[in-house]
């Protein structure tokens, strides 16, 4: 209840969150941060710890309504002004079962960025992920290097945990999701029957099964805005300006030095200067867009659009993403799953949320447990996963087609064939997530007009050896094994075998059938990375160095998901908080005598 009251009060009394237009031009700022998502909010918080530095944080969106803090309403906010509303471009032989064969690529457009509309799943990733970053020429980014930053951020209240890997007292609340259906306990038991260990997947070991952990506080969303901005909103050296659309980084063409940004607010163009640095934290889509609009990007592409070239770099040329498959649905013979209609009708659920931060409205998109596995087709020797399973005590049918199927743009014909008959049945689902795809896409500008969306090309399932499809099929077989365990067979768990329209000519459950199904009803989980890749100077794909400085341009950094150089065994939200924490120390080290050991969690 305190959180709801605080949020309402914050919307009424916004402190530094809204500044009158025209008041910034005559003020001197040391640092300008573009974007208030996971990384940008952290950087604004940490840099403003230095009292003699003036910090400006610019955000295109506005403050979110307190309703966005109710986890159970998350799907609905994808259809509001808090989402940029991006769509992937059409791809041959993919998205065949989605509306117009195009996929939603949601990104947050609000104070707090995508943490306002995401599903709050808290996963750091695997030790091997970060050790690979370092081994590819990025010193300072090994697991040993970055773990202190994960710990520094978090205020953990996870019941089953590995104590050396958890911390209390940080800004970001991390905890168990209060609501659990009976079916999630069945899933956890079933996985254990197959040999999966119960683990704290953010602890010493990741391979295994666990109830999901989330960035929630007393049952409500703990966004970047709530965690990192609200506590410091009254710092006199921090200015936070919403509804400010940055259109260009200002760079001296002779010295190649960034000195400010151009932004539009209330249909007026403004310029504001930075004496030390401009920091782009606008995300995997908008940071590369701004770089290219400012003359930093692929030479041929910029020349084609008539943008003067300041530095030729492979901006946007590589983009990894995490894909999931939507078609693994199983029925059971008892009401152990979630029925959305019953949730909405039960007034006790509202009371539990308000009074205790508990009840069915604390569910995070229906995800209740995670399992990590290394499939039998993995081609590496290290002991880390290539697949994540997200268990859902329901499915796209849970809300009778109101939001979940629309969220994934499932074609109405396919929804009516597969999920509509299940609307009054008891069904559970698993969303398998491919952690380390071999396929990758790219983005480019549509034009030099900063208000035009970039063009997004996923290129899913295009790896020459078809390894991504094979890994998915191996994962499907494993989910089928879980359904057949004694734990699930107690409830007569049966896979839904209705053929997906378009795949009827394939024999159901053959590899050929599953490949067809994958090409019809797969969708992104919104974890795009690498569009401003971090790497050494001899890496032809690198845009920034290991200190996140843009190559060839002084006083310009990128710090967000776009710098992540390789795929992660994680959802990208929490790793991006880590990037923000580390970037803050890198900036402090460069601009003052600063000992990072004074700030790191011990």
Automatic annotation (TrEMBL):
Q: Does the keyword Lipid biosynthesis apply?
A: no
**Catalytic residues of the enzyme:** 527 (proton donor), 571 (proton acceptor)
One Pfam family linked to the record: GMC_oxred_C
> In which residues is FAD bound?
114, 246
Q: What PROSITE patterns does its record include? A: GMC_OXRED_2
Q: Where is the Glucose-methanol-choline oxidoreductase N-terminal domain?
A: 283-297
GO molecular function: any one?
flavin adenine dinucleotide binding
Cofactor(s) recorded for this entry are:
FAD
Please provide the record's keywords in A-Z order: FAD, Flavoprotein
Record InterPro entries: FAD/NAD-bd_sf (IPR036188), GMC_OxRdtase (IPR012132), GMC_OxRdtase_N (IPR000172), GMC_OxRtase_C (IPR007867)
Q: Which family does it belong to?
A: Belongs to the GMC oxidoreductase family.
Its protein name is Glucose-methanol-choline oxidoreductase N-terminal domain-containing protein
Higher taxonomy: Eukaryota, Metazoa, Ecdysozoa, Arthropoda, Hexapoda
